[in-house]
Amino acid sequence: MKKALVSVLIIFIAFTVQVYSQVDKSPEVGIFEHLGTTIPLDLKFVNDKFDTVTLKQLIDKPTILSFVYFDCPGLCSPLLEGLGNVIKKTSMQMGKEYQVITISFNFRDTPQKAKEKKDRFVERYSKGNGDGWIFLTTDSATIFKITDATGFKTKAVGLDFIHPSAIIAISPTGLITRYLYGITFMPNDFKMAIIEANKEQPRPTIQRILLLCYSYDPENKRFALDVTKITGTIIAFMILVILVALMLKKKNKIIS
C-alpha cells in the first residue's frame, strides 16, 4: 500500500515539475530570478538630465528597478502607470526612503526620449519629488549586461520587443531582493519589497507561480491564460486525489 502511494506521488510530482519547467524552457523571453545576487554597479548610463552616471553613483538606498522601452505599444506604458499608481498609494516617500530607476532596454532610445517619458509620468505620479524617479538609457552591450544580471530576457521583433513585465527590488548595495510581477502592484507588497531591500533580505514572491498559468502571446503582445498548463495540472491533481481516496477506502475495508 505504501509503495503504491509513493509511486503515485512520484508520478504526480514528475508531472508537475514537467509543467513548471515549461516556464523556464523558453530561454528567449521571461524572468529568470537571480535573487541574492549583486547587479554590476560599474555599468554606465545616461540619465534624463543628459549626465553619464554609474549604478554605483545612483543606488544608495532601496531601489525599484523597471525595464521598458519608450516606443513600446504594449506592456511598458501600463507597467509605468501601475508603478506610478502604487507610488501614489504608498506612504513611504520616494526620493528619501527609496527611489525608482527605469532603464530602457532599447539602445535606440535617447536621453531626450527618457526626459520626455519621465516628464509625463513624474508629473502625474511623483508626489512632488521628480528626482526620486530616474530614467536611463545606454548602449546595447550595457543593456545586455544589466538585463542578463537581473534575469530579464527580451526578444527583438523588428523594431519592437517581446518582453516580460515586472519590477525588481534592489538593496542599497546592489543586491536583488525581490521580483514583483505584472503591471499592477499591491501597496503592501511594494512597501514590503522596499523594507526587505533596505534590510538586504532576498525574498521570493508567490506571484511567480502565476507564470505556470500565463504564457506570453507574441501576436497580441500580452500575457494570456495557458489553458493547457492549467488543465494538465488540474487533471494530475484530480488523479492523485482519486487514487489516494481509493487506497484509503480499500485499507479501511481490510481493517474492518
Rounded radius of gyration (Å)? 22 Å
Describe the oligomeric state of these chains in a short phrase: single chain
The percent of residues in helical segments reads 40-55%
The main β sheet shows up as: 7 strands, mixed
The coarse overall form would be globular
Number of helices: 7
The span between the termini is 16 Å
Helix-strand pattern: HEEEHEHEHEHEEEEEHEEH
Strand percentage lies at 15-25%
Q: What's the CATH class of the largest domain, please?
A: Alpha Beta
Total domain count: 2
Structure classification: alpha+beta
Regions with pLDDT < 50 over 5+ consecutive residues?
Answer: 17-26, 209-216
Q: Mean of residue pLDDT?
A: 81
Task: Provide a descriptive summary of the structure in words.
This protein has 256 residues and is of the alpha+beta class. The protein has 7 helices and 13 strands. The protein folds into 2 domains: 2-24 and 232-255; 32-224, Glutaredoxin (3-Layer(aba) Sandwich), CATH 3.40.30. Helix 3 (76-89) links the parallel strand 4 and strand 5 (99-104). Helix 1 (2-24) packs antiparallel against helix 7 (227-255) and helix 3 packs parallel to helix 4. The longest helix has 29 residues, at 227-255. The radius of gyration is 22 Å and the shape is globular.
